[in-house]
Design goal:
about 210 residues
């Protein structure tokens, strides 16, 4: 089986089947990454395509110093920020270390909380914590990236990742409680994020 790097190089040489194979290999993860943050499926699919096209356009910048997946998520994060700056209500300033998707998009997840299953409540809560902290949690628990890879995606020192994940879990628990989840249930969910991540994958796939 060809490696990601070999497929990327082949795609860069004009081999379309290599690009199709690379997209199939990473489509679900990229779709999940954007779908956790944006509601329009058409926009999500466009961002997946833009991420893959940016990868092949910048293939010479990938030198194997990190995993291909972390490099791809780094591009995806940049594409997401670019998209958020294009939203009608936004200006140029997007602070992903302080602002949440709920703040940046103007969408409030509180309206349907009474109808949310617990999995959907968790997804709504994720959108209420700062975007980079949301990304850190998703990469750690959904995509199972290493601390080093997460640091590369967030473009931050590796020494800060553990503290960021701890802070992200704290804010996630608070957001879930604010959305109506009992404190004990919020704590239990955050304590077992790995198991809940599998359930959220199904929720996002079914939307």
């Amino acid at each position: 089986m060809a490696t990601d790097e070999e497929l990327l190089a082949a795609w860069g040489r004009g081999e379309g089947t290599a690009g199709e194979q690379l997209l199939r290999r990473h489509f679900d993860a990229l779709f999940r990454f954007f779908r956790h943050k944006l509601d329009e499926v058409a926009t999500v699919e466009e961002l997946v395509q833009r991420t893959m096209l940016a990868a092949v356009a910048n293939r010479e910048k990938f030198r194997g110093e990190c995993s291909f997946r972390s490099w791809l998520f780094t591009i995806a994060r940049h594409e997401l920020c670019h998209e958020l700056r294009r939203l009608p209500r936004r200006h140029e300033h997007v602070d992903v270390t302080e602002q949440s998707i709920a703040e940046l998009s103007g969408a409030s997840p509180t309206g349907a909380v009474g109808r949310l299953q617990h999995e959907r409540l968790l997804l709504a809560a994720l959108r209420r914590i700062p975007l980079d902290l949301q990304i850190a949690i998703e990469l750690a628990y959904w995509e199972e990236l290493s601390a080093a890879d997460i640091a590369r995606v967030l473009e931050t020192p590796i020494g800060t990742i553990k503290s960021r994940l701890r802070r992200a879990r704290e804010l996630l628990q608070q957001a879930m409680t604010a959305l109506g989840s009992p404190v004990a249930q919020s704590q239990a969910t955050v304590d077992d994020l790995g198991a809940w991540a599998a359930r959220i994958r199904d929720v996002v796939a079914d939307d």
